[in-house]
Amino acid sequence: MPKIYSPDLRERVIVAVEQEGLSRREAARRYRVSASAAVKWLDRYRRTGRCEARPVGGDRRSRLPAHRDWILALVTAEPDLTLTKLAERLAATHGVRADAGMLSRFLRRQGISFKKKRAAQRAATS
Question: Rounded CA gap, 11 and 6, in Å?
C-alpha cells in the first residue's frame, strides 16, 4: 500500500512549483518524493484547488447476501452458468456490480463449489 504523505509536504511541493517556479521533478527531488507523486499532486491541485490526500479504504462489505435467494435459484436453474455471466445477470437484473472472484467467494461460503465432472476428466492411462 502506498505511503500517505503529510498535507504539509504536499503543500510545500505545490508551493515550490507554483510560486518558486521549480519544475515538478525538481520539486520532487528537493523534497525527496517520487516525480510521479509530485505530478499527481499538482494535477489534483490545479483541478480541485486541494492538496489533501484522497480518502483511503471505505465500505468493503459484500452486497451479495441481500440477493442470496436470487443467486442460488439462478445457479440451481442454470448450473453451467459461468461466474462472468452470473455477474452480468446480477448487474442487469439488480444493478449490483460484482466480479468473478467476489461471486466465487460468496458461493463457496454458501457451500457451492464448481467441480469438474468425471466426463470432462482425462481418459485413464492404460
Answer: 9
Cα(102)–Cα(61) distance, integer angstroms: 11
pLDDT tens for each residue of 43-73: 999 999 998 888 877 777 788 999 999 999 9
d(CA 8, CA 110): 48
Q: Is the dihedral of CA 107, 109, 112, 115 positive or negative?
A: positive
CA distances from 66 to 3, 91, 105, 123 (A): 35, 14, 15, 42
Domain definitions of the chain by residue range: 7-48, 65-110
**How many CA atoms are closer than 13 Å to the CA of 126, on its beta-carbon side?**
0
Q: How far is residue 2's CA from residue 85's CA, in Å, rounded to a whole number?
A: 34
